[in-house]
Amino acid sequence: MIFKDAATAMSFMACPFNHAARIHAAKNFRVAVEGPEELVAWFMQLLNMILTAGAEFGTRMPDGARRLHDDDDGGPVFVDVKHGRILRTSVIDYDASDAPSWTIEARGRKFTPTRKATVAPHALALRSTVTRTSGCCIR
């Protein structure tokens, strides 16, 4: 890995890292990675894992579970995990901290979408899919 300057190197190697800054540096030729493609990919994944080691993800829930989100091909869902096991999956409900919904006014009426994600039925079956394929463990 070759950095154009020390500031760029620090932005890559310091926590918390900023993916947008990394992309910007790469697009502007402030960093280069040389070597066989498979080793470069392996090294970048290793770097990402090192920088996130020990980091906690999700939101801690009152029952001790951790609420994560999954945005697969079926739509966005919450996945509540406790002790490495999925407790429940649920549709994401948007709250005041999320962006406001749009409103269209037509012929004296206002139309605003519900504050709930639209999810395909197979996304809500995520728990049974993970249970069958990986022994119900999330790492």
Descriptors for this entry?
5 helices; 4-stranded antiparallel β-sheet; disordered C terminus; two-stranded antiparallel ribbon; 139 residues; 33% helix; single chain; alpha+beta
Report the major sheet. 4 strands, antiparallel
The average pLDDT score comes to 80
Principal-axes shape call: extended
Secondary-structure-derived class = alpha+beta
Classify the helix fraction into a percent range. 25-40%
Widest sheet: strand ordering = 3-4-5-6
Tell me the number of strands. Answer: 8
Describe this structure in words.
- This protein is an alpha+beta fold and 139 residues long.
- The chain is 33% helix and 24% strand.
- The protein has five helices and eight strands.
- Strands 3-4-5-6 form a four-stranded antiparallel β-sheet, with helices on one face. A two-stranded antiparallel sheet has the order 1-2. The protein has a two-stranded antiparallel ribbon with strand order 7-8.
- Strand 5 (75-82) and strand 6 (85-91) form a beta hairpin.
- The chain is extended.
- It starts with a strand and ends in a 5-residue tail after the last helix.
- The relative contact order is 0.11.
- Mean pLDDT is 80; it is low at 131-139.
